[in-house]
Amino acid sequence: MLIVFNFLFVSLTFPLNGALTTKVLMLSLGNMIGLLWNYVFFLFFYTLTDYFGEFFSTSYLILSPFANLIWIVTFYSLSLSFLANLEIRQARAET
Amino acid sequence: MITVILEALFLILTSLMTGYLIRHYFFTLTVLRNAGKHKKAPALENTAFQPTVSILIPAYNEEPVIGRILQRMSELTYPTDKLQIIVIDDASKDKTGKIADRYSNIHNYVKVLHRDEKEGGRGKASALNAGLKHAKGEIVLCFDADYYPQRDITEQLAKEFEDPKVGAVQGRVTVLNEPKNMLTRLVALERIGGYRIAQQARDDLGLITQFGGTVGGFRRSLLEFLGGWDESILAEDTDLTFQVYLAGYKVRYVNDAECYEEAVESWRGYWKQRYRWSRGHMQCAFKHMLKVLGSKNLRFKEKIDAFFLLNVYFMPVLVLLSWIISIPLFFMKPPQWLGVGWAVLLISAYSFVGNFAPFFEVGIGAYLDGRTRAHWLISLLIFTFLYNIPICTKAFADLVMSKISGENKVRWDKTAHSGDGNSYIMN
User: Fold this and answer.
1) At residue B43, does pLDDT exceed 60?
2) Which residues of A touch B324 (CB under 8 A)?
3) Domains of chain B listed by start with CATH number
């Protein structure tokens, strides 16, 4: 899912107005959030599987993409909001 | 054996959904690349092409909103000697007819058709057909009574008909009462994805641009040739879109021709509206699919797009089916690719929201519109998609039942408008 995030972010956010450094920083932040999110999610289900059995291992497979989508969609949306705000502020500053 | 069948079915369904994802990804990319190229076109004031235009406004119990649209119609910048406005009072039980008469008495280009209970109240298509009989303009435009267009919208829409290959035109729909509640805000996001990106991209790529039933219109000669609006179909707009393309004409989308609508304000109203859309769209799929695929007037890429467009309301049903299939597959003996397929399926859940636009499409649309805070709600669009699953499933089940029983009579459930949108108008 990190590949999906990086692909969408690079192809659809990088062409927008705004400094490249800002976008690279946002992409890095997104990747860090994703890794941390997945790590915590994995540990949680690893513990559940260890205590309660294989059912939770399968549940992890089912729920993992959904859990990933929550942060991907949210982070992507907030990034666009941030870039749009930045553009408007720049336009105001120029005028 | 069962596992193999389930796997095959799951693979087919996820492939179909991947197709939709790729389609919308290219839509988004196309609009993004062309973003700087779409400059607002000048109005028609100084050009020779100024066709006569008839505007049809069907109205059934629209007392809270009819005055608003008629006031705006009286402010249009199009020459009034080339303009005819026909209000079809479709057997309204409130003061719709009286309000319309008041405008008709002041402006000689406004005409009101009063239909009694015998002939009226049978749905929008029936009312529009009644209005068409009185239309004299070369171009026929339609507006719903709850809409509020820009003053120069007639010029913006009519200019496209200078090209003789253009049979119909569609303008942009924007939500007027967006701040009203969470639902209206989500519907506004849906509209952004559907119009700003999907319609624009289809127009840019020469695919199937959809006539949305309002804020648009037709060449009258073509409309009469096609027999007007089909009263047996709930999505009479989609039906006419395909009839236009099958007749060898095209539909143009004009993003600058902006018009505000009063969006549904309750989940019950949303259900009624979307049920009508989905059932009507499915009717169109049954009616046009084979004709479209075999048509000589459509190019290969148009046929592919038409296939996706006609089937779009089946997708929530198929997503539900895929979920039902995939869960036991996980607990049987999951193949390696199942995880990937499942991920695609979940992304699809975010891909059939917003007029079936994925989250990235809605996001880019909002960005291009210069919106700064609308993005915050994109994550919540999953709820409208989940709500669409039972709506589309019921519409599909009802349609199948009606096909089996031979009872094809449809009932038009009108969307109620409160008129609260008036408070958001700033001239």
Assistant:
1) no
2) none
3) 2-31+311-410 (no CATH), 53-137 (3.90.550.10)
